[in-house]
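Dear colleagues,

As part of the handover before I leave the project, I'm documenting each prediction I ran so the next person doesn't have to rerun anything. This entry is a single chain, and its sequence is reproduced below.
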Amino acid sequence: MGLFKENPFGHILFLKKWLIRIAGIITHQRYKGFNTLEIEGSQVLRDLAENNVLFVSNHQTYFADVVAMFHVFNASLSGREDSIKNLGYLWQPKLNIYYVAAKETMKKSLLTKILAYAGSISIERTWRADGQDVNRQVKMSDISNIALALRDGWVITFPQGTTTPWKPLRKGTAHIIKRYKPVVVPVVIDGFRRSFDKKGLRVKKKGILQSMQIKAPLEIDYDNESVEAIIEKLEYAIEQHPSFLRVIPQEDLIAYEEEHQKRRYSYKGD
């Protein structure tokens, strides 16, 4: 790899590699030290193609979720079986892993700008901006950037567009699936909301069992399935369909209600 070789977004791969290595070393204890990360599905990752893979996941914090995925994906590709033991997997990380994030979030600080360089596809949210509800048209440049990332490698997306659980999925994800026909891999995470603050930068509680399940790719009829059918399939796959409300842990219901109340009061103050 040339010292100044760039990816399709103009990021220098040598620099990106070192950012991933350093961030991985700093954050490793959050998943295997202060807390424990239980992993399922490493073999699924090793069987995937090099590119045009879309991971869809529920979302619990801004950054801890995706950082954990970088750990798990690279550890699995290095031959570890459902484990992130031994940080040697960070020496040659997969550099074409990207994740979709809100542009306003990724511009807020030096730290978020560094995290963005490590793999963010920053998009403008069409439904919310600066804490306010909005109704904007989708920017075609955002769609083009996601397509570019899929052509180059793997893309992680959180189709609910919020860390609040059991919210409806955004239809844009289904449109991308129908248009670009990626392999769609569901990921279900848990425990991150209890162990980290909402941003996922501060450890809120230690001794929490976190979990990440990588499921087999979904069977999707890209040409004939409707957007609505794909959305419902995704909701079931990442366990965010409303029917799951009947079987979730009580503590998660309480967390959901607390978050809902905070949002209600913040709207009143706007």
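Residues 42 and 76 are 5 Å apart (CA to CA). Confidence is low (pLDDT under 50) at residues 259-270.

All the best with the project,
I.
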